Amino acid sequence: MTAFPPPDFVRTSSAVPGIDVYMPRPPAETHQAVVDFHCPQCDGVTAYSAENGGLTCTFCGYYEPPRQEVVGKGAAAFEFTVETMDRAAQGWGVERKELVCERCAARLTLSTDSLTTTCPFCGSNQVIQAKAPQDVLRPRFLVPFSVTADTCREKTAVWLTNSWMLPSDLKRLARTAEFAPIYIPYWTFDATTQADWRAEVAHTRQKRVFRSGRWETETVTEWRWESGRAGVDFDDLLVDGSQHLSQLLLHKVQKYDLRALVPYDASFLAGMQAQAYEVGLEEAWENGRQTMRERTKKACQAQATSQRIRNFSMNLSFADENWRYILLPLYLATYRYNGQPYQVMINGQTAVIAGQRPVAWKKVLLAVGGMLAPALILGLVAFLLLYLAVGEGYGGLAAIAAVVAFVIGLVVAIVTVSHAAGMDNI
């Protein structure tokens, strides 16, 4: 008996409910030809220039202008169908090496001419280099680098000295920090959600009751059922495809303008590092759907006449789902201070910075002591006045002032310490 469906046939859409229709599997796009970037003038290695967007020879300065036009928000999106998945082109389109870190297991690709042997994610030199596989899904669009490494160093020098809580010798690290330009994988999703919701909503009213021989007013809560419908349109919801970056830091620098998207071309990767996605399309889509659920739930709850809600339920549907696989520019730097590694991220398009910074705890503790010192001095004065029975009134005032000063100093000290504790992720 012949197997059904036949080999190389896939299910396609059917106009009749309950009837399955199969079609020949569409031919997959072939790998893009592997390209070597060499200067036509001196045969030297060319590299992508973040300053002008073209290819610049690192030896003789030969410049080749960019060949891609900006498509921005008009970049084509793909539906979740077997056909679009099967026709997705694969390969980087340029011969590259893969770097595998033995410490943090991060994987990224770099040009074959690169001699880099340091992991930009954790700063380890324990890496293995091999030929990068070409069987990964090729990104269709990217946002080119427009921020230079010099700009990163200047911005980091200011960032490392913009708080009195930081060690005074941090600025020198900005001059020595090596910023690695890396294209980070992202998925973007479009969808429209519709949800019918139902919940019990709290309503309060004042009620007069006669209790213990007198009338009193009390607040009564009544729970009433409410329902409604809410919908949210999602346009280019970003989902990170990397598993080796701090989500807290990445969220802080994730302010990309996707109107600058251009079609993917291997020339943009010349001299650059890039990371293949570690979070696949299905997992990324589930992460995206979870975000969409939460935002739609908030939209539903916002329709309730009160924000005190219980027994909430929601019937959610998705429509017009589309996806893109893109690359976004990011600078990574890992520096060490007193033997501890700290990571800095800079948006390669907007220069927004976030990272980890050590705290000068001696400074912080001295400052906290200074905040509490007035309360201690006033308390001592009050004690002496009361003990010597001289000016009891002044002693009482001094005691009250000491308590107030202590409370204020304690609150400011707690805020200061909390801010210092969070300095390593700002």
- How many structural domains does the protein architecture include? 3
Percent in strands? 25-35%
Q: What is the string of helix and strand elements? A: EEEEEEHEEEEHHEEHEEHEEEHH
Q: Uncertain runs with pLDDT below 50, 5 residues or more?
A: 29-35
Number of strands: 17
What is the straight-line distance between the termini?
Answer: 65 Å
Q: How much is the radius of gyration in Å?
A: 31 Å
Shape: flat
Average pLDDT for all residues: 76
List the total number of helices: 7
Which structural class best describes the helix and strand composition? alpha+beta
What's the assembly state of these chains? single chain
> Major sheet: size, sense and barrel closure?
12 strands, mixed
Helix coverage percent: 25-40%
Task: Give an overview of the whole structure.
- With 426 residues, the chain is an alpha+beta fold.
- It has three domains: 27-190 and 233-288 and 321-355, no CATH class; 191-232 and 289-318, no CATH class; 361-425.
- Helix content is 25%, strand content 33%.
- It has helices at 82-86, 149-159, 171-176, 247-253, 281-302, 361-387, 392-421, and strands at 9-12, 21-24, 46-48, 55-57, 63-64, 78-79, 96-101, 107-111, 127-131, 141-142, 180-211, 214-240, 262-263, 273-274, 309-337, 340-347, 353-355.
- The strands form three sheets. Strands 6, 7, 8, 9, 10, 11, 12, 13, 14, 15, 16 and 17 form a twelve-stranded mixed sheet that branches.
- It starts with 8 loop residues before the first strand and ends in a 5-residue tail after the last helix.
